[in-house]
Amino acid sequence: MMIPAFLVLLACELGGNALRQMLGLPVPGPVIGMAILAAGLAIRKAGPSPRSSIAGSLELTAEALIRHMGLLFVPAGVGLIAEIGVLRSEWLPIAAGLIGSTLLSLAVTGLVMHWSIRRRASRRPPDTVHGLERG
Questions:
Q1: What's the start-to-end Cα distance of the chain, in Å?
Q2: pLDDT single digits (tens) 42-71
Q3: Has residue 90 been placed in a domain?
């Protein structure tokens, strides 16, 4: 039951990598693959039978992968240990990049939230109490 779901996940990842290669996109292939998967699931959900066997199988497979997510970080940790010399010699640019990208992402997230809250508030009708406008 999990094998078809793994095949779907693999096909989406490979399709994303192929699209990235063919179109020269600056986005990682697995990210494109996840967008393909999300679009496919959204289209299937909008169709006549939203609870298909593959969707249930994907859900079970995703839950199993999430349960064992800690194991997926082992290769990254081994890579860090293997490149400890580079980390020691280039710690300043790495730290600056980490701090800078974190601050930039926080600022962008805050601005987008501020913009979306203001836009949503401007679309909402005025509050009323017993038919009278308040405000």
A1: 57
A2: 887 766 555 557 777 888 898 998 999 888
A3: yes
